Amino acid sequence: MTSEKPRYRPPTGSNAEEKRAWASFYARVGKESTLAAEVVAQLDKDSELKRAHLALYLSCRESLRTQSAREARNQRIAQAVRWLFHVLFAVPAKLLVGGLSRGTDIALASLPQEAKREPAVRQVRRIARSKTFSADKAQFDQQSKQQTG
Fold it and tell me: Which residue has better confidence, 125 or 35?
């Protein structure tokens, strides 16, 4: 007695529609990875059917490997594009912002002292020039001299 299993024999009453369906699977599994995954799942459940359609099973597995390789390649390309975008746009923008910040500090330091004064200084000078303030200040100075001296 041999340990070899008998070959799968399709039922004799197989209709042409069934054969067309299998033929369409052979044609479509190379293009549609979702169909290939479904066919592999079905063929994994039934070992006799898997032996009968071994070429279809292998085509499906190849389609799934190709799809996986395609997705991995697309991820590598996307990573390269993100890196390139970062190098071409994000890094120069960051350097420009940092440079402008330092440039602003340098520009403010190089301005004349008059321009850097606070607005309150101008207000104090205007008040000091007014006549009422001059009189009040003179009176205050006179009082402080009398107290100290």
Answer: 35
